[in-house]
Amino acid sequence: MDYEVVIGLEVHAELSTKTKIYCSCSTEFGGEPNTHCCPVCTGMPGALPVLNKKVVEYAVKAGLAMNCEIAKDSKQDRKNYFYPDLPKAYQISQFDLPLCYKGHLDINVDGIEKTIGITRIHIEEDAGKLNHDEYGGEALVDLNRACVPLIEIVSEPDMRSAQEAKAYVEKIKSILEYLEVSDCKMQEGSLRADVNLSIRKKGETKFGTRTETKNLNSFKAIVRSIEFEIDRQIKAVEKGEEIVQETRRWDDDRGIGYAMRGKEDAHDYRYFPEPDLSLIKLTDEYINNLRNSLPELPESRKQRYIKDFELPEYDANIITASKKLADLFDEAVKTSKNPKSISNWIMGDLTRMMSENNVEDVPFTGTDLAKLVGLIDNGKISSAIAKKVFEDMFANGKDPEKIVEEKGMLQISDEGAIKEIVMKVLENNPQSIADFKAGKDKALGFLVGQAMKESKGKANPQMLNKMFLDELNK
Amino acid sequence: MNISKDELKHIADLSNLYFTEEELEKYAKDMSSIVEFANQLNDVDTTNVELTTSILGEYNVFREDEVKPSFKREELLKNAPEQQDGMFKIPKVIGG
Lengths: 474, 96
Fold this sequence. Notes:
The structure holds 2 protein chains of 2 kinds.
Chain A: E1 3-14, E2 51-52, H1 53-65, E3 69-70, E4 73-74, E5 77-80, E6 90-93, E7 100-109, E8 112-125, E9 129-132, E10 139-142, E11 149-155, H2 162-179, E12 191-201, E13 211-216, H3 219-238, E14 247-251, E15 256-259, E16 272-273, E17 280-281, H4 284-293, H5 298-309, H6 313-321, H7 323-335, H8 339-356, H9 366-377, H10 383-396, H11 400-406, H12 415-428, H13 430-437, H14 442-454, H15 461-472
Parallel strand pairs in A: 13-14
Antiparallel strand pairs in A: 1-11, 1-12, 3-7, 4-17, 5-6, 5-16, 7-8, 8-11, 9-10, 12-13, 14-15
Helix pairs in contact in A: 2-3, 5-6, 6-8, 7-8, 7-9, 9-10, 12-14, 12-15, 13-14, 14-15
Chain B: H1 5-14, H2 21-39, E1 62-63, H3 73-77, E2 83-84, E3 87-90
Antiparallel strand pairs in B: 2-3
């Protein structure tokens, strides 16, 4: 039996305002527990919220960049539920009149373009953090994050695979980064997704019963939890079981999803208008001003890279997906004549090392990367040495020219020195000489390799090659 | 408008309130008459009245995005029944 997967996402992004959504406490991450708090964000009786102007601005910018309609009249509502990280026992959110609605984003998976509908984007407050006491089993509540502004971006159930869901979240992340309205640090929980997923038989038009897996905070977790849930639902249906509508959690360490215990009617949130906050009324002028202030977004930057720097579309796609990488590229090509090489370093070693080391910020500047490429292009260092320099730059953020100088890594291009190495290697490898003369071309490669080893990777490989040939053909 | 005992129990559960059988019976009746009282509003002709989303009559009451000093932690934790490491200490959480 063939099944179709139906996925809708709710993406939460913390806005990078200086202060919280309803009070003037700092939103800074990682402070001592409960030091960025006041009566408003700890839910003391009688405290009154006042909306942060910037929150509206950032949310509207996000809405415009995601092709949404912007509501001229919008209101905030209380969403009621009990949980210890929510001190007021209600979350201020938006119910029937969100700030932005009816948008869409285009994604590209394996070369196929697809439009994903965005139902709405609304503003709301984040909850606090529960720290679980290892010994007593009690929980400790830190409310620094309580009241930090969030936007929730709700998609239509338009995605059909884990890869589409991933591409959609990547697109949101890059747009929010370009707009500079969220730092999108997934490890710090600034960007997280809830996945609504159901399956149905191919050709069926009615949706199946869906489950919601909450709080996925990495692309890996999004993809793996979706694959897990698809597999679980298909197996259940094949066994003739009913899918139960439920809220689920994902355990990334163990690679399994599980249903959350608790009453399902907790979903009865009894929304009602927040009486302590005024309506939000936006004028055409306000909206148009923000529209005109939007920065260059990933799509147009991609086109610019293809046109101005002749990057392949593939490269342009990958680099512009991350504002940090695109900014690095822009800075590097200011002083480099080799955009393609810059692009290769970014897409290859840099992205790999960032993901291996769980680093979200590029540890060196674009100018440094341009210098590194310059060193290779001018024959000052070999590409083997360049990898080592790059690792040093990555670890210490140092200037590549200084690294090369300090560690004496300059490429040996002096004819005499090269000759010395060649002669030594030939002397030690008579068998290779014989092999070469017998027509085994591979022997040359071996000899060059030995010479590189002898020179600790510093000898100019083209010169080595040429000199070996000259000597062998004498 | 009649609020059944089951409906009342549901609402009570959502509000973390627990009633005895007799109380449920009594409050279901009280609740029914409260809703009935409020329902009188439905008899008012509102044909030409704009949809009311707020009774404040005010809009765009905003704050600038400027950090102001937060409260002293001791002050905020003063009324907490229990605390540890500068945090509110609460019983074990189930179903998180």
